[in-house]
Structure prediction request, 517 residues.
Amino acid sequence: MSAALSRYHFLAALYVAVAAIMVMWDIIAAGRISQLRRAPRSFAAVTAFAGLLIVPALLIAYASPTIVYGRAIQPVAWVWPLTAVLFAIQATYALSRRLVTPMFGAPVFVYNLIIAIVAVSRFAISRGSEPPGFGLALSAAQASALGFFFGAPALWGSGYIQVPLFAPALPARWRFSGFFRAGIAVAAAALAGLVLIEMPNAFETTKGYARYADEQLQEHPEGDFDIGLKIFPDLRGPPTPLAMERDVALADSLGVKAVTIVIDPEGARLASLDSIARTVDDRRADSTLIVIALGYPEDAARQFALSPSDYTRRRIADVDRISRRLRPDILIPAIDPYGEGIRAIGAQPPEYWINYLTRAADTAHYVNRRIRVAVAASSYGSRDSTLYFWAASRGSPIDIVGFSMLPGFDGATSLDTHMRVAQRWMRALPSRPAPKPHWVFAAGGYPLAHGERNQELALWGVLSWATTQTPIRGLVVSEAGDYNVLRGLRGANGRIRSIAAAVMRAEKGLRETAAPR
Prediction:
């Protein structure tokens, strides 16, 4: 297992452990403060009410942003921001009335205030409102701070939240209690400090997307540029009826010419593939391009550590089953080897991926020569460069070379860097014979972390760039709904975000400028 993977596992485990201690502190503190006779009634009432809500509120905060878990609890999604505000009120009261020493109370107050502002801002975003610039920047800063522990998934995951804390406005019973309080204050100060340190960059991040507002798409009179949409969550089994109904209808309403479906190895079994095949066949009948990507198993790191060869052999078998049953137009045997692949099995040398992709391409081509095999770059480092130029070479069995173009914690800054690197790579390819077709297999943004308007602008910026690059033949919008990741065109409450209008505008513009055939 790579050092980077081990580091993130350790930091994530550390954060979860501290968060669990914070929850226990909140429950114990709420019980004790509410029973203190000398505590002001209003203060005790707020503390008791917030303590009663904290556990269900955290569960709601975890589940409500995603369609998978949150559709049924949308009517009570307000409980989390309400609880966060109650904690901020409790800390403010305790500090202002000298119920707690400033050394302990001030860090907890700042920490709770950050959580409350972010919770309210993200709730407003989920309802279609744009929060004030400070709230949006604080949301971006919190995501960046959590990225220290969890890496890039903190940008789009629903489970990465900060646990609010009660101000320790009660007498310590034992000497150990004093040390424990000090630890709580230090943890609050550290977590709040991580967020505040990110604030200057966060303001630049949330404002930086504006550079794409005036970009224009390049016309394609030949009609050789397609826009696609990733539909369904990453499948570990048959798609749910809700996902099938909503995502297929959304793809139809947008008029996209391609759909991408990600199938994890758990879903690459014959029974699941038979169910998926019905949807694929329906899409193919409508002349839609079918892109199938193979994801990673839930315990990929453990499987790979036990036996890399067995892990690879099982993935080749998955490629074989997918090729035979689904017959995709484009097959991606591994999603982002140096992005998602690192998080799944660690950073493997380019030689491993070259060997695996060669075997996967040979398998798919043996089943059906019409299947085009693709691979995408996502980290734009030296290993991605090696893999890209191998895949783009004429001697490689890869048919399509692609990119994942998603913002980082710094928003448009990293997005611009990725586009410049990708453009430099494409220009370095020999002009004759013509380069292999290229695609952008993932583009979009982060509506909750960076705002819905910025999600739309991030996509528009990549679209405008992609249409000017001659080798690029298509772009896939990631994704239809907030399933595994929170960057969908549709939120958990069913509301269609403004990014969908940008997709329709782009599709209409490309269609109108295409010469009639």
